[in-house]
Amino acid sequence: MIQKTLDKLRPHFSEGGKFSALRSVFDGFETFLVVPSATSKSGVSIHDAIDSKRIMSFVVIALMPALLFGMYNIGYQNYAAAGATASCWTMFLYGLVVMLPKIVVSYGVGLGIEFVVAQWKKEEIQEGYLVTGMLIPMIVPVDTPLWMLALAVAFSVVFAKEVFGGTGMNIFNPALVARAFLFFAYPTSMSGDKVWLAKDTWFGLGNAIPDTKTLATPLGEAAAGLAPSGDIWQYCTGLMPGSIGETSVIAIAIGAVILLCTGIASWKTMCSVFVGGALTAWLFNIGGLDNAVANIPWYEHLALGGFCFGAVFMATDPVTSARTEGGKYIYGFLIGGLAITIRVLNPGYPEGMMLAILFMNMFAPLIDYCFVQRNISKRLKRAQDK
Amino acid sequence: MERTYKLKKGLDVRLAGEAAQTLAKAAVSSLYAVRPADFHGITPKPCVKPGDKVRAGDPLFTDKATERIHVASPVSGTVKEIVRGERRKILHITVEPSDNQVFADYGTADAATIGREELIDLLLRAGLFAFIRQRPYDVVANPDDAPKALFVSAFSKMPLAADFAFAIQGREAHFKNGLKALAKLAPVFLGISPEQTGCAWVPTEGCEVNVFDGPNPSGNVGVQINHVSPVNKGEIVWTLGAEEVAFVGELLETGHVNLTRRIAVAGSEVIRPEYVETPIGASLSAILKDNVTNSEHNQRVIDGNPLTGRKASADDFLGARTTEVCVLPEGDDRHEVLGWIMPRLKEFSANRSYLSWLLGKNKAYNLDCRIKGGERHMIMSGEYDRVFPMDIYAGYLVKAIITGDIDQQEALGIYEVAPEDFAVAEFVCSSKLELQHIVRQGLDALRKENA
C-alpha cells in the first residue's frame, strides 16, 4: 500500500513535476520507508543487507538511554534546585518538554541544510546528520538558547561537513565543531556555574528558579580549586549537573554495549581512549601536583564530564577517526591522555574531551599515513631485495 | 609435502541452490558465441567472415596488435554473424554448429619433452594461450614476456561456485599433463583447498602445491599469489583457470582443442541444481532449458557466480572462462518496508546489527539482486580489510584509484590485484561502492599510462 502511494506521488516530485524542488526530500522519505528496489548492474549481483541508514540508525538507538536519562536529569536538577519534590514521571516529562525543542531545532536546521545541498548537488540525502543532529543537543548545557543551537548547527553542517563534500569526507566531527563553535563564540553560555539548570516552568511542569541560582559541575568546582561534590556512585548514575547526555555512565554504557555488539563502533578506539585516560589520570594522581583536578582519582576522572560520552560516541566516529586498525589504538590512547591533560593543566577548560577529540581528528590522517607508509615501504623493500 | 596457508580474513556466503554433484544432459545449443570481452586486454580482429566453415579449434578472431593470440571456435560449423555494438566494437561472433563435430588437428606432443618456444607457438595457434592472464592488470598475457611464475587455483569459495574436483572428473590425466607442460613456461604453483589434499589429480612433482585454508576469497588466485610470491613492480605472473589447464593437456595428447566444461547450474531459481557438460559459448537458454522455476517475480541469469559473474539474460551465451551459471531472483519487484530497522532474518549480513551471525554458518540464504542501499562516500573503516586476505590496504587502494593518484596506486600494490579480489569487499560495503568496476577502470587506466 505504501508503495502504491509512493508510486502515485513520484511523478509530482520528479524533474518537471509540481514539487520538483522537493525531489531530494521525497527521495529521502521514500528510501526511509521502503528499501530501494534498484538492482546491481555490474559487479556483485548480491549485496550485504547493511547500509549506512542501518548503521546510523543503530548509533541513534545507542544514544537513546543517555538521552532519556538526560531528560530525567534535567527535571531532577530543576526540582532539586527549587527544593521541591515530584514523581519520577513529572521530572522526566519536564525534561522531555525542555529537550524536545532542542532536538527539533537541531534536526530541522541540520536536515534542512542537508536537503538543500542534496537537491543542489542532485545527490541522495546522506544519513550522517541523523547521528550528528542527535548528538549536538546532548552535548550542550541545558540552558543553551535555541537560536544559539541553530546557529551552531548551521555553522557545523556547512563549514565542517558540506564544504568538504558531505558525510564521509569531513575531517572534524561535526557535532564537536558545533560545540566548539558555541564554546568559543559564547563562552559564558557554555561553561561556568549558571548554565546547567533549566530555570523555567513549562505547561505547569518544573519550577521557576531565579537567574542568580548557580549549580556547578564537579569538574568546574575542581577547576576553581574546590573539592568536587558528589561521589563515584553519583558520577556513575549521573544525577549531577552536566551537559544533557553526558552525565550517566550507566546509560552511556548501555549505548556502548549496543555499538560494540553490532560492531558499528571500533572497540579498539573505544578501549584505548579509556586506557589512555586512566593512565594519564593515574600519573597525575601520583605526580603530586598541587591542583584539585590532578588529585581527582583516576577512576572518577573517567566517570566525570564528557569523557565517557566522548569515548563511546564521538571518538569512534569512523569518518574522523583513524582508519587503519593499528592507528585506532594510538588515536584512542592519545585522545584519552590529552583530554585528562587539558583538564588538569588548563583550568580554563574544565572539559578537555571536546578539544582532545578535535585535536586528534586533525592528526588521525597522520597516524594513518604512518601505518600505510609502513606497508608501502615493506612493498618497496620486497621489490628491492629481489 | 604441501605447505598450508591459514587465512583468517574473508567471508563465506552460503546461498540456496548449490549444485548437486550429478551430471545432467544439457539441451543441444543451436548457436554458439565467443565474446572478445572475455579476453580482456586484446583488441579483436576477426579471422572469419559470416558463412565460413570452421572446425572446433579454428581461430575465430585474433589480437589486432600482433595477430598472434588467436581465440578458437568451440564447435565446428558455420560462422553466422559478427555482432557489433557501438563504434563497431565486436560483441561476439556466433557459430551455428554442424551435426558431426570435426576438430582441427594441431598434432600431438609430449609434455615432458616439448620446448618452451614450441609450446607457446602451439598454444597461440590453437587459441589456448588467450586463456592465460597476467598480473599486473589482469589482462591476456603477452607471449613475449618471461613470467616469474604461473599460478593455478583449483578451488573457488565463491557462493554457488562449481566444485573443481567434480568438474575435472574423467579429465584428471589431461589436467596433470597440462600442468607438466605449463612448467615449461614458468615455475607452476597450484593452490588447493584442504579437502583436496591427496586427490588423484593433485600432482606430486613438477609443480609446487600449496594448501589454502580459509574463507572466501581464499580460492582467488590473486590471494594465493600474494601469500606465495607477491608481484613486485616490473614482475609478471601468469594465471590460468584450472579447467583450462586440462584443455592444454588434452591438446598435447590428442591434438584437439576441446573447450568442453562441466558447468554448475545453481541458484534458488533453478529447479534441479546440478552440473551439465557443454562446450563454452553455448546459449544460456539451452543450458537452463526446463530447469528454471516458473515464478511470477523477475529473475536474473548470471554468467558466473553471484559475486564475480556477469549479469546476463536468457538469450546470452556462456562466457569463455565461466565455470557456473546461476539464476537468482532479481528483486526489483520487491518492496520491503522500513528495512533499516527490521530484523530481516532472511537477509544475510556480515554486520552484527543483523542476526545472521547467530543463525549459523550453514544456513543457506536466498538473496536477491537488490543493492539494498544508496551509494555513499566511504564511511566505515576496516570493512574491506576484514574480507581482504592480502597484505594490502584495500580501502586506501580504492581511494587512490578513485582519485587517480597513480604513484599511490603503485605504492599500495595495485599490480597485485584483480577486480575479482575485491568481490567480497564489494558485497559487504555499506557505502555500496562498485569496487570491482572501480578497480577494473583503475587497472585499465594504469595500463594505458604505462604502455
Can you offer a commentary on this structure?
Chain A has 386 residues and is an all-alpha fold. Chain A has one domain (55-370): Ammonium transporter fold (Orthogonal Bundle). Chain A has helices at residues 2-13, 23-33, 52-82, 88-121, 128-138, 146-161, 174-185, 187-190, 218-223, 232-237, 249-261, 267-287, 298-303, 307-314, 325-345, 353-385. In chain A, helix 3 (52-82) packs antiparallel against helix 11 (249-261) and helix 7 packs across helix 16. The longest helix of chain A has 34 residues, at 88-121. The model of chain A has no long low-confidence stretch (mean pLDDT 89). Chain B is α/β, with parallel strands linked by helices. Among the domains of chain B are: 3-13 and 107-254, Rossmann fold; 29-102, RNA polymerase II/Efflux pump adaptor protein, barrel-sandwich hybrid domain (OB fold (Dihydrolipoamide Acetyltransferase, E2P), Beta Barrel); 371-451, no CATH class. Chain B is 20% helix and 20% strand. The longest helix of chain B is centred in the C-terminal third of the chain and has 16 residues, at 435-450. At the A-B interface, helix 2, helix 3 and helix 16 of A face helix 9 and helix 10 of B.
Write a short abstract of this structure.
With 386 residues, chain A is an all-alpha fold. Chain A has helices at 2-13, 23-33, 52-82, 88-121, 128-138, 146-161, 174-185, 187-190, 218-223, 232-237, 249-261, 267-287, 298-303, 307-314, 325-345, 353-385.
- Please report the two chains with the greatest interface, counting residues with C-beta closer than 8 angstroms to the partner's C-beta: A-B, 58 and 75 residues
Under the CATH scheme, the architecture of the domain at 3-13 and 107-254 in chain B is 3-Layer(aba) Sandwich
Q: Tally the beta strands of chain A.
A: 0
Structural class designation of chain B = alpha/beta
The percent of residues in helical segments of chain A reads: 55-70%
Treating each run of at least 4 consecutive H or I residues as one helix, how many helices of chain B? 10
Please tell me how large the radius of gyration of chain A is. Answer: 23 Å
Q: How helical, in percent, are the residues of chain B?
A: 10-25%
Largest sheet geometry of chain A: none
In the CATH scheme, the class of the domain at 3-13 and 107-254 in chain B would be Alpha Beta
Distance from N terminus to C terminus of chain B (CA atoms, Å) equals: 41 Å
Helical/strand content category of chain A: mainly alpha
How many helix segments of chain A? 16
Strand-and-helix sequence of chain B, N→C?
EEEEEEEEEHEEEHHEEHEHEEHEEEHHHH
Q: Give the DSSP E fraction of chain A (strand runs of 2 or more residues).
A: under 5%
